[in-house]
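Quick start: what a row looks like.
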Amino acid sequence: MWQSCAPENEVEFQLPHIRLSGRLWGAPDKPLILALHGWLDNANSFEPLAEELSSEYQVLAIDWPGHGGSEHRPGAYPLHWVDYLYDLELLVDRLSHRQSPVAIVGHSLGGIVASAYTAAFPERVGKLVLIEAISPLFEEASRNNQRLRHSFISHGRFLMKRDEDPAVYDSIEVAVKARMRLTGLDENWCRLLVDRNMQKHDIGVSWRSDPRLKLDSPIRLTFEQVDALMSGHSTNTLLIIADRGYSQINTLLPKAKSWFKRLSYVELEGDHHLHMGNAVNTAKAIRDYLSEDVADAD
C-alpha cells in the first residue's frame, strides 16, 4: 500500500529494501498510470503531463532512490542502473495489491528501466510508453577496463569527501541557472525539478540528491547483451521522440522496429524534456494510444 503524506498529493512506499517518495494526481477511481522519471530529475518532472491527464487517469510519479524525497541506497558502493529494475519489480508488486497500473510511462532513464523490465517480464505490464528512450545503454566490450578504472577512481574521490558538509546556497537560484546552462531547459521547468532535489536549511538550501548519481558505474552492457534482452519485446509500446531530442534515439529507431513486436511511435515538437515543455501534445499522444489500445482489445 502507499501512504499519503503532506503536501496533499505526496505519497510514500516502504519497500522491503528502501523507501520511495512520489506524487499522485487524479481521482482514485481512475485507471492508474505509473510514471518513471529520468536521471537527476524527480517526480516533479511529470507534473505538467499529469495535469493534462488527471481528468481521465490517476498518475503516480515516483522518485527513484537518491532522487527527490526518496531514500539513498545504503552504504557507499557504486550505483548501477540494474538496481532500478529491482526497485520497479517490488513497486509493481506492491501496487498490484491495491491497483495495478494500466500503463507505465518512462522518460529517459525511466524509459530505459521500463523497457528492460518489460522485456524480461512482459506479463507484468499491459502497456508501455517510452519518452525519449528505447533500450539500455551499451558500449564496446573493449571499454570495460577503462570504465572500471575510471569508476573506482571517481568513487575513491567521493569517499574522501563524503564526510564534508554539503555546500549551502542562499537560494535555489544558483542551482536553477546551473541546470538551465547544462540542459537548455526553460527556467520554469528547471525550477520545478531543482526544488524537489534540494533541502532547506535555516541559512539556505543544499542538494539532497545522492552525489553518487553523477559518478560512472563500473560496467555497462554490450550491444550483444542488449540485443539479446530486447529481441522479441512483446509489450504493447508507444515510443514518443522529440524533434530536438537526443540524436541517439533516431539512430536506434530502425533497431527498435525489429526488437518490439508491437511498436507505435510518434515524433513531437520539443527537446529531451518534451513531456514538460510540450505536455499538451505528449498527453494527447498517450491518451489516443491508450484509447486505441482499449478499442482494439474490445
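That is the whole record. The radius of gyration is 19 Å. The mean pLDDT is 92.
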